[in-house]
Design a protein that fits this description.
Blueprint: H1 4-17, H2 19-22, E1 32-46, E2 54-68, E3 73-87, E4 94-111, E5 116-133, E6 141-161, E7 164-173, E8 177-181, H3 189-194, E9 202-206, E10 213-222, E11 230-245, E12 248-264
Antiparallel strand pairs: 1-2, 1-12, 2-3, 3-4, 4-5, 5-6, 6-7, 6-8, 7-10, 8-9, 10-11, 11-12
Length: 265
């Protein structure tokens, strides 16, 4: 996952390298609302709960709103909710996870070509969720709360497919710095909240301690020639979250099929 920073750096470089050539071209930035469902597989490790990896199915709901701002800037707000049902290799214990994620980004838009657009910028991302292990014990559940500063970038290509207006889009984001809640190794939640024993539970994070990447490749196809603003969306979502704080390891890897629709306003 150390390659995640290289992916974003390459996208930022490609955007800024053509700034001079495209400075005179004003890009067309349309308001857009997208509603999506994603289904796929997840692999999770949380050493606070278990030293074993758990794998299984995951379902997500995503809502995204893109809005143009002044001087070729745009704002993107994305809401995500996910539920994961996981089992260990022996299939004798399960984990149940849920997470809500909010990401708000501001990006500069460049018209690279008549059909190509590039976006680069950043914003904030917040996470709130939990992971529950049916094995029980003194610590059967883990809370996940985090706030990150996240650079992000996107490239889109407009073309015609089956004589209908279409857009192929790649988008990526990664946490750079932030704060994360985590119990310390061997520390129970009763010690934290019942007895008030703070032990470095609000942890500053960087891309070194949380090397993560979320990226998506989507294809939007107009549903009809008469209503090109309504489009079917299909694509791939890859979300690779990692953290190593307070002597605890965590990862959540997701590979998902995306289906939904978009509307240009």
């Amino acid at each position: 996952m150390k390659k995640c920073s290289v992916v974003l750096l390459a996208m930022f470089s490609s955007c800024f390298s053509v700034w001079a050539q495209s400075e005179g071209e004003q890009p067309t930035v349309a308001s857009e609302r997208a509603t999506m469902f994603a289904i796929g597989a997840a692999n999770v490790l949380d050493t606070y709960l278990s030293a074993e990896e758990y794998s299984g199915a995951e379902l997500r709901f995503l809502s995204q709103r893109r809005k143009p701002l002044r001087r070729s800037w745009m704002r993107s707000v994305t809401h995500q909710g996910r539920v994961s049902l996981l089992s260990n290799r022996a299939d004798n214990h399960d984990e149940l996870g849920a997470m809500y994620q909010l990401q708000c980004a501001w990006r500069k838009v460049w018209q690279l070509h008549e059909r190509w657009q590039c976006e680069a910028g950043g914003g904030i991302g917040a996470q709130l969720g939990f992971l529950y292990n049916t094995l029980g014990g003194n610590n059967p559940a883990q809370a996940r709360v985090a706030l990150h500063v996240m650079p992000s970038a996107a490239v889109s290509y407009d073309f015609s497919l089956f004589k209908r207006s279409s857009v192929l889009r790649y988008e990526a984001s990664a946490p750079l710095v932030g704060l994360m809640f985590s119990p310390n190794y061997g520390q129970s939640y009763y010690e934290i909240f019942g007895r008030g024993n703070y032990d470095h539970n609000i942890v500053p994070t960087t891309i070194v301690s949380t090397p993560s990447l979320c990226h998506a490749l989507t294809l939007d196809i107009a549903l009809s020639k008469r209503k090109p603003n309504w489009r079917l969306r299909i694509g791939y979502l890859g979300d690779y979250q990692q953290a190593r704080v307070n002597n605890l390891k965590y990862h959540h890897y997701s590979h998902m099929l995306v289906l939904g629709w978009t509307k240009r306003l």
